[in-house]
Amino acid sequence: MERGVALLGFAAIGSAGLVLLATRTRAAAALPGGHVVRLVTEHRWVTVPLQARLAPFGAVGGSTEAVSKS
Predict the structure, then answer these.
(1) 69 belongs to a structural domain
(2) pTM for the predicted model, two decimal places
(3) What is the arithmetic mean of pLDDT over 52-69?
(4) What is the pLDDT of residue 15?
(5) Which of 13, 7, 6 is nearest to 49 (CA)?
(6) β-strands 16-30, 36-49: how paired?
(7) Cβ partners under 8 Å of residue 44, min gap 6
(8) For a designed S-S bond to 59, which of 9, 42, 52, 55 qualifies (C-beta 3.0 to 4.6 A apart)?
(9) Is residue 68 in a domain?
(10) Distance (Å, rounded) from C-alpha 6 to C-alpha 48?
(11) How many domains does the chain have?
């Protein structure tokens, strides 16, 4: 199991998912109200298997035919 500080991004490619994790950060600036801006100093791409192959982006229900009213 990978441990990360923050999830930076993800992508699904076929039967695999890629997750971009920030593994180390440092404080870069302090904002009013006690908030802190963090800078990513180390990151790692992690590959995870997906249960089912994903359809292309925008495809719904496996069909691109228009639905007609009867």
Answers:
(1) no
(2) 0.63
(3) 51
(4) 86
(5) 13
(6) antiparallel
(7) 2, 4, 20, 21, 23
(8) 55
(9) no
(10) 17
(11) 1
